Each structure stands twice: as structure tokens, then as C-alpha cells.
Amino acid sequence: MYYHFPQGKDEIALEAIxxxxxxxxxxxxxxxxxxxxxxxxxxxxxxxxxSKIFTENEYGFSISLLALENSFSDNxxxxxCIETYQLWQDEFENKLLHGGFCFDEAQEISGIILxxxxxxxxxxxxxxxxxxxxxxxxRIPVLVKAKK
Length: 148
Known about the structure:
This protein is an all-alpha fold. The chain has a single domain, classed as Orthogonal Bundle (Tetracycline Repressor, domain 2). The chain contains six helices and no strands. The longest helix is centred in the C-terminal third of the chain and has 25 residues, at 103-127. It is globular and about 50 Å long.
């Protein structure tokens, strides 16, 4: 394996982050494509995640472990994580902007949505339960409408 990745585990981690960045962005865009309402779109994406995790046993939706492991040690990996999270947040922000939110509100809410999804995915995996994701799905309308 190190033949293909001469810089070792950091290079492998960087490639994993790049792969996840593009993969998740594509998935968000695919779910959002035909849905105009930002609340329904965001709920649909979270349902998609829950389905992938608990029906199809797919786990590639979070870089939180890589981000936590490398947040203090490797600046290149830390920056890659920041860029990845920002790209994902931008997808939520754009959906909110197209749904009528002003820039500041869309930016703030999209960050909260991203934080919430990352936390719900982590808790769902640790608890082996989709309940955190289901609770988040139910609460998205309250979160989003509260600022609209």
C-alpha cells in the first residue's frame, strides 16, 4: 500500500478526505436536485443518510474521525478537513439562499445543520440506532423556520 502512498498514512488520509469531499457533495446535490423547499431537501438528505447507514450498511459520510485525529498534528490534513466541511456547508447554504433566506441567515443555519448532521451521524453509529438522525429530521423545520 505504501508503494502507492509514499508519504504514508497522512497521504492515505488526505486521499480519503478528498474522496469523501467529492462523494458527499455529489450525494447532497443529487438529493437536492428536484426539491425546491430547503426544509424538505435537508430532511430528504438526512433520510438518505439514515437509509444508507442502516439499510445498506454504508458508512462513508463523515470525516469527523480524520478531522479529530489530525486537528492538532498535520496542517495539510486539517486544512483539507476545513475545506471539505466548508464545501458541504456551502451546499446547504445555497439551498437556503434559493429558498429565500438572506446570506447571513443562510450561512448561520447551514453551519448549524452541518454540525447537527455530523453529530447525529456519529451518535447514530455509536448507538447503532437511527434515532439521532430521526430526531434531527423532525427538528429541521423548527430550526429553519425559526430564522425565516
